[in-house]
Amino acid sequence: MTIDAGVSVGTDDRDVEKAAAAAAAVADIRDGMLVGLGSGSTAAHAVRAVGRRVAEGLRIECVATSRATEALARSAGLTVRPFDDVARLDLTIDGADEIDPALRAIKGGGGALLREKVVAAASDRVSIIVDSSKAVARLGAFPLPVEVLPFAHAWVMRVLAELGGTATQRRGPDGSAYRTDQGNLIVDTAFGPIEDPAALALRLSQVPGIVEHGLFLDEIDTVFVGRPGGVDVHRRGEPW
To answer: Which 3-state string (H, E, C) describes 18-62?
Structure first.
């Protein structure tokens, strides 16, 4: 299904595509919902779109997947609840770094993959918003983010190499080691085209010291893909 974006979008204008996808996804929100808000530059479009709907009278509460998203949500006029007293959410809207026709995704470019995965698991529905460049035939062009305990850093780097990955520790803007909101490290690991995402996810989950990985294989229900002139909507179980 394609939704008319109502705007003219150039092929290279990915930011406009993200905004159109965000607006389409946010249209699914109804009064009384508890909504999860993802992290990263794409999810930020959804936060701002939710803020506009709240300003127009929508009555909802939100949960943020990162401190940065919480700050943005509050600045947009949203009511943000702490997740530690939330057992269930109606809907989560988030971005992705890549997504394939089976609605499997690589996430974590914004550094919040652990919290994003927890919030997604607690949600009745998960909607992903992406620009057209993020819809891929096969995962793996984008390096897979892996969240690692600092104590286990050297060991995990060795295991990732043994699994065929080229692992690079993520750095912050000042060149120091990037830290997640949990104080952990992120190792961005280039595996190339991932032939069997489920097998890789299982193997990574078995490595002591890996807190979480950025493969989201069965959490996503709907993806909104911004394209020039409209938004394609794909739902789990339907043809891509």
So the answer is: HHHHHHHHHCCCCCCCEEEECCCHHHHHHHHHHHHHHHCCCCCEE
Domain boundaries, the chain: 2-136+217-235, 144-213
Q: Which of 205, 218, 233, 231 is nearest to 126 (CA)?
A: 218
Q: Which residues form the catalytic set?
A: 116
Amino acid letter for position 61: E
2-136+217-235 under CATH 3.40.50.1360, yes or no: yes
**Closest Cα partner for 64 from 8, 107, 46?**
46
State the CATH class of domain 144-213. alpha beta
pLDDT digits (tens, 9 = 90+) for 66-117: 999 999 999 999 999 999 999 999 999 999 999 999 999 999 999 999 999 9
Residue environment code for 3-32, b if the CB has 16+ CB neighbours within 10 A, otherwise e:
bebeeebeeebbebbbbbbbbbbbebbeee
Q: In what order do the strands lie in the sheet with 166-169?
A: 166-169, 185-190, 144-148, 210-213
Considering the entire predicted model, what is its pTM? 0.92
Nearest to 142 by CA among 133, 151, 150: 133
